[in-house]
Amino acid sequence: MTHGKSGRGDAHGKAILMGEHAVVYGFPAVAVPLPEIKVSAEATSREGDDWLDCTYYRGPLQNAPSELAGLRLLIVEGLERIKWRRPIGITIRSDIPAGYGLGSSAAVAAAVARALYHLAGAPLPRETLLELVAVSETMCHGEPSGVDAQATTGLDPLWFVRGRSPEIVAIPTPMYLVVAASSQPGNTRHTVQQVRALQERLGSGTGPIDRIGALTAASRPAIEHGDYPYLGALMIEVHRELAALNAATSEVEQLVAAALRHEALGAKLTGGGGGGSMVVLAKDIQQQRQLADVLMSAGATRVWTPIVRGTGLSAIN
Ligand code: MEV
Predict the structure, then answer these.
(1) Burial 74-98 (b: 16+ CB within 10 A, else e)
(2) Which end of the chain is more exposed for a tag (fewer CB within 10 A), N or C?
(3) Could you tell me the distance, in angstroms and rounded to a whole number, from the CA of residue 16 to the centre of ligand 1?
């Protein structure tokens, strides 16, 4: 039973354009927010047990399944920080599919943290927000770089290096993207561990992670000068390196191949991989629409067509 007092919080999806996995090792990543793919959370004072209501579970918070352990921990930590002593109900509504490399876990955590602080009428400094998201992400992912927390809570395209304040990437020319989900979710904790094992075997300096780092470094001037043919070529190279890390499933490979057959400027998996989603850079809005259809015909289960216009102006058709 609810008491009436409630707080709300929102966050959104993200796509990593360049640098996933390498970003865990201190190399840069470029991430764009997907503000139209939203998560919202409501925190309500209630009677009885603490309660969670989300896509995957509806019931007492303490009985939530282990997949939601990170979220549970975040809620406990958040309640402690806001000194909330009464039973609470948390309701989460999300358009971001979980396990698709689009920032679902970070965005859910951020929306819930914001809802808790809103409920308490307490200010939520950005640093605290990021700390709370990290509580959940560390449980979900093991060693999150923090890029998802940043990109799902702000509206700027970001140049992100672990442990540093992110920089805004200037986007002088609109970027027409297609994000396509395969039929199979991935598990970021698993792929990050798999990459870690490979990286330890190869040693740093020469392997795919280092090459992704170098390709991502080259992408920033390409983005800032609007040299999208070159950016696309870099994306294709990064995809090859991610495939060498065993992060690309055959289904994602097929989607990438279909996009390139239809003359996309670039295409690669996005996020942790092991299933999940891929991102395509199109030449213009016409090709963006055409590629969205091509990817659906090639087996994508869902497509989004974001246009990234630069600071605070991202939009999705
Ligand atoms: C996940 O969206 C991106 C990874 O690089 C992990 C991370 O940065 O925490 C795979």
Answers:
(1) bbebbbebbebeebbbbbbebbbbe
(2) N
(3) 9
